[in-house]
TrEMBL record:
This is Xylem cysteine proteinase 1. It comes from the Eukaryota. GO terms for biological process: proteolysis. Keywords: Hydrolase, Protease, Thiol protease. SUPFAM superfamilies: Cysteine proteinases (SSF54001). One of its GO terms (molecular function) is cysteine-type peptidase activity. It holds the Pfam family Peptidase_C1. Belongs to the peptidase C1 family. Residues 23-71 form the Cathepsin propeptide inhibitor domain.
Amino acid sequence: AVLLVVACTSAFLGREDEDMFKFMKFVKEHNREYQTFEEFHAKFEIFKSNLHKVDDHESFSPFMDMTETQFQARLNLETEAIAESRSKMERYTLSAKRGELPTSFDWREQGAVAAIKDQGQCGSCWA
């Protein structure tokens, strides 16, 4: 039983060390500065939570130390004014012409898609 506890603790600490290493790499790459240990620890916990969501992708984003609420607020994704105006909007449905459509269409092949860019807090990318 003691051996099992030691093995589990070792595996946990290994994961914690790996998460901390990834967090420190993230902090350096995205020039993050935290004013207090408490803020650092809170951001590390958020980062770990987000890291476990994207672990399979092996990629980071500059938003990894934000909660969902902080992310939405930063990008102005859903304000009360937008939600209220959206609920008052009339809905229109346009009927499309029916005809032959390709089975697939890739805008990348047309040269119409650019790389994703961070537009900061502008929010126009969602317009």
